[in-house]
Amino acid sequence: MSASTIHSAEDARRLAKRRLPWMVFDYIDGAAGRETGAARNRAALDAITLRPRILRDVSQRSLATQIFGAEADRPFGIAPMGMCNLAAPGADLMLARLAARYRVPHGVSTVASTALEVIQETAEGYAWFQLYFSGDGAGTFKLAERARNAGYETLVLTVDVPEVGRRPRELRHGFKMPFRIGPRQFFDFAMHPRWSMSALLKGKPTMANFDMEGYSFDRTESRARATWDTLARLRDLWPGNLVVKGVLDVEDARMLAASGVDAIQVSSHGARQLDAAPAPIQALSEIRSALGPDYPVFYDSGIQSGEDILKALTVGADFIFVGRILQFAIAAAGTSGLEQLWDALSEELSIAMAQTGQVKLTGTNANP
Asked: Residues 153-165: what's their mean pLDDT?
């Protein structure tokens, strides 16, 4: 498939749906329950308008920003996503190279399909490690120490999955990690030979960060034992930037800011965990108001375009993270598809800035 046919995130999704096995597509695309949470956030994003301004010299625009004091060429980076190599062999490293080129964070999932050390080296230091608390936490802290030893400077603790959400689309296909291939999955793969042959040649994706002696990862294992004491232990362990991801409540946000966390990330996990969760773009506005203008607040969930990015920035985010649409672009056309969609997001953002009279990414110019 030609990357030249990708003009939007929806194009990437449409092409990925055609190429990927049904179980893989629905794993990437699916949300919890009846998927009303995803629809709710989409509606809330669509309800935000941007205020056009005229007769301003916007001929020289910059998409650059700073994050934790470092220069970034874009105000958006790569959200942590598990098992990215399901989209295409080598997807993790495609994302890492993109992060290095644009000097933006690449969130590396606990359940990445490439070892965290390899991704950090390929990303040239721009990788952030995303951590799940799991079981009794012993393996979790070992993994944090491993990331620290690998040179990661930012740790992202994801806190919105005390139990893994039920995603019916995924369950109907019998999706498991690691893969278990039965008759249904075999038929699915046979109907998508291009993906299946490339996966066969490269080997099936695995959870690459679980080669430590005595530590395995069960995706369905309860993560419900994490507490504020767990966070305090992690803060003591981690010398660099500590971000807590999955925040939707104002009081939680205040407590996190007071606990020594360096930034929070407003997120509903792409509506993959709780169907009845509020629209995170609305929570973003409330949390920004509660924390004031100076505390670092990041955002992910439901971003589909450069205009969405500008909306989230103007509502209150300091930096945006983009997720599954990047996997769709990779599934559609590999590295060239990823670059094509990244360029489209950048161009959409730049044009929206011009339309709203902005040359730099500062100030608020939205009408919620």
From this structure: 94
Check: CB of residue 366 under 8 Å from CB of residue 97.
Answer: no
pLDDT in tens, 60-80: 999 999 999 999 999 999 999
Of 99, 151, 75, which Cα lies nearest the Cα of 309?
75
Dist. CA 92–CA 99, nearest whole Å: 11
> Is the model's pLDDT at 366 over the cut of 50?
no
The pLDDT of residue 312 is 98
Query: Is 151 annotated as belonging to a binding site?
Result: no
- Which of 106, 173, 192, 269 is catalytic? The answer is 269
Query: Does 4 belong to an annotated binding site?
Result: no
Residue 49 assigned as binding residue: no
| Residue 82 counted as an annotated binding residue | yes
pLDDT of residue 93: 98
Distance of CA 332 to the CA centre of its chain: 18
Domains assigned to the chain:
3-363 (3.20.20.70)
Active site residue 269: yes
